[in-house]
Amino acid sequence: MSSHLERLQSGFRSDVKSSASKVAVKRSAPQPPKAATTTSNTTKSDNKDSKRKREPANIVYSQPAATGYGTEAFTQVTYVIEFLKKKDERKTFQEILQYLSQVNTDELKKKLIAKILRQHDRVRWIPDPKLKAQSWDSGYFEHRPIIQVKNEIDLITYLQKKTTAQGVSVKDLKDGWPDCDVAIDKLEKEHRILVTRTKKDNHARMVWSNDPTLLYEIDPEFQVMWHKIELPSVDELVRKLLEAGQKPASEDPSKRVKLAPKPKEKKKRAPRSGGKTTNTHMAHLLKDFSHLKR
């Protein structure tokens, strides 16, 4: 009997050992895929690196150099107008090309610049009196200001010739007469012009013609007496006019009928019309019964 139990016990132990060895083998078996994953990771990283290497680098385009002058003809003309305005004297076309650094440019572009200058409203072209037939690059060019005024006499004459009461902008005057502020201050003190000024800097803004013969000096004592006189109120003025038998331009305040303020009407919200109604099953609940209120 004991031998039989020993046999069963030894068999059970052998089964346990064999099963334990199998479990250990099974647990150790999944180790090879780690290498596979590492190899796959390395291959993926290599592929990513290769893909990254294939991506084109960002191209940084160079900015245009600051050449100082434009290349288009109209841009050149803008610089020419400022040049003539600053110099305030006539210039030949060759002098203009030297200023623009366009002496060695092609003739077609030179002709285009000369043509635009001759037709521009801010440039005056003066033919060369020494030539019988003018060429495309002959004559003189000078700045044509907005207002042809460059001294005090010209300003007074220009203002007196105006047919309207509109003032003259000082900004437009400075286009052809940059230092006109001194003359404007002088003429204002002489009461020959009227001037409006800015509140912040007290700079002249607009000017009008003025007649100094209409200026009369008033005694300071009379001015004080004049300002001390109190004007009657509107209601009192109407009564005094009626007492004097005169009809006032405004109605008598005593006869004014004060209207009671109208009560504000509540705006009724209009029912919504149009659109697709989706809640038809609630039509009896959404119906407006406000008109049935007592």
TrEMBL record:
Bias kind Basic and acidic residues: ranges: 285-294
One annotated GO molecular function: RNA polymerase II general transcription initiation factor activity
Gene Ontology terms describing biological process: transcription initiation at RNA polymerase II promoter
Pfam families the UniProt entry points to: TFA2_E-tether, TFA2_Winged_2, TFIIE_beta
Domain TFIIE beta intervals: 65-150
Compartment(s) where it occurs, according to its Swiss-Prot or TrEMBL record: Nucleus
Major localisation: nucleus
Purpose: Recruits TFIIH to the initiation complex and stimulates the RNA polymerase II C-terminal domain kinase and DNA-dependent ATPase activities of TFIIH. Both TFIIH and TFIIE are required for promoter clearance by RNA polymerase.
Assigned protein family: Belongs to the TFIIE beta subunit family.
Subunit note: Tetramer of two alpha and two beta chains.
PANTHER family for this protein: TRANSCRIPTION INITIATION FACTOR IIE SUBUNIT BETA, TRANSCRIPTION INITIATION FACTOR IIE, BETA SUBUNIT
Name used for this protein in its record: Transcription initiation factor IIE subunit beta
Species of origin: Blumeria hordei
Origin organism lineage: Eukaryota, Fungi, Dikarya, Ascomycota, Pezizomycotina
